[in-house]
Amino acid sequence: MILFSDVSKSYEKKTVLNSISLIIKKGDLIFITGPSGAGKTTMLKLIYCSERPDSGHITVADWDVSKLKQHEIPELRRNIGIIFQDFKLLPNRTVFDNVALALSIHGMKSEKIRHYVNEALDEVKLLDKASLFPQFLSGGEQQRVVIARAMVSKPIVLLADEPTGDLDIDNAKAIMELFSKINSKGTTVLIATHDDNLFRASGKRVVFVNDHYIEKEYIG
Ligand SMILES: Nc1ncnc2c1ncn2[C@@H]1O[C@H](COP(=O)(O)OP(=O)(O)O)[C@@H](O)[C@H]1O
Ligand SMILES: [Mg+2]
Q1: What does the pLDDT read at residue 105?
Q2: Pocket of ligand 1 contains residue 32 by CB under 6 Å
Q3: How many Å lie between the centroid of ligand 1 and the Cα of residue 54?
């Protein structure tokens, strides 16, 4: 599903990733961890083509991401759900509209949009808050809206960058359970986190990035 082959990436003259290779199978749930600045976020950005590698190849399903032309990027991104801290909910839109906006398919009938949005909100157990503005939701609930927004277009891959960074232990656990549920329905899930509580005893694959390399891999 996702393949990194000999991928190197630097910003200006600073090397972040040095010739890393990684195979992620369809339907996997995998953690990318390592110290701050190790390159976790960069790895996710390379997958959805917001950064380009200096060398090497990245493929996602049938896309050779490292070779994608600018106009081909939206098609790739329609198939990737993204949960990033700098991609916040819009405060002046309701929960429903925040999720609906992510359905950027032109010409979709409002009835169909309502169906998909309600389905996504039901999945995260927030149907009853659809008409509220984000500020009236708890931190955990807001993050569940973010997940609904990422999942509403039924992506084949879900990328989550430090998805529990702002949450307490109970809310973090609930978010992780949601990811497991999403994964069990077939979506490939990648979670970048420095928080080892998330993957301890998870039984899932953990990739530890450090010093520009994948230093080790183990089962959490
Ligand atoms: N756009 C950028 N320009 C310059 N340096 C960057 C940029 N993005 C990230 N970096 C640097 O690259 C390194 C890796 O960053 P990042 O991928 O965000 O690591 P992590 O997510 O593991 O904390 C850091 O040293 C960071 O400061
Ligand atoms: Mg990061």
Answers
A1: 67
A2: no
A3: 15
